[in-house]
């Protein structure tokens, strides 16, 4: 199943995120600060957690002509730090499009397996296009990857996140059960953020990735929180990438009709299906129980 649906919202909605971007930085100033970076790391590793900002060398300030402005990384860090679990895990930080092997989706020459391969190819192409387009279009239509456990959907979503973060764009990667836990934790005194703070960030962050919108035990409260995030993002045309192991009937069942309907408007939908769980395929390869396919 692959459906491509037009995004029907209003084209001229102003970006209300209130987040200042500093993409028009003077390249000369950027070079100046870059030369101060001490760590010998590859440029594409710079924006990973704990690494030095290539724009400001972690000073938090960039010079644009003769005026100093807060670096975009400050806002990025604020977004990341607001959620305890927003950082990508070590495993997910390694996900890249180049490592997304279509061979996992190929099996015997049956019609069905060919379909899996073509669907995976379409999903990969859409993911790359999304990354490319979102650089110039802050209202790019989002993506929804649906498929069973071990079908590669989180890998694709994490690859999108890594590419976008490397370009210093503001993005939040949230695993849905963690998000709901964090929202609940704001009710205890332990959390520094209020529920509204966290919801506001998830609603307004320029690019949001929601991983594992699955068959969890949603209460009316959690259903409403997810709806509130998605509804805001749909109205403001803010791109959202979602992974789920649910099909649309199930999304309707677990999250309700109104959320389901918004997802259709916000996202292009791609199905990923591998003949065998990719983690199992990797396990068999690693343990020498299966030969590498050519
Ligand atoms: Zn910076």
Automatic annotation (TrEMBL):
Occurrences of domain AAA+ ATPase (ranges): 139-270
One Pfam family recorded for the sequence: IstB_IS21
Matches recorded under Gene3D superfamilies: P-loop containing nucleotide triphosphate hydrolases (3.40.50.300)
Region (Disordered) residue spans: 1-26
Highest rank taxon of the organism: Bacteria
Protein name per Swiss-Prot or TrEMBL: DNA replication protein
Organism of provenance: Dehalobacter restrictus (strain DSM 9455 / PER-K23)
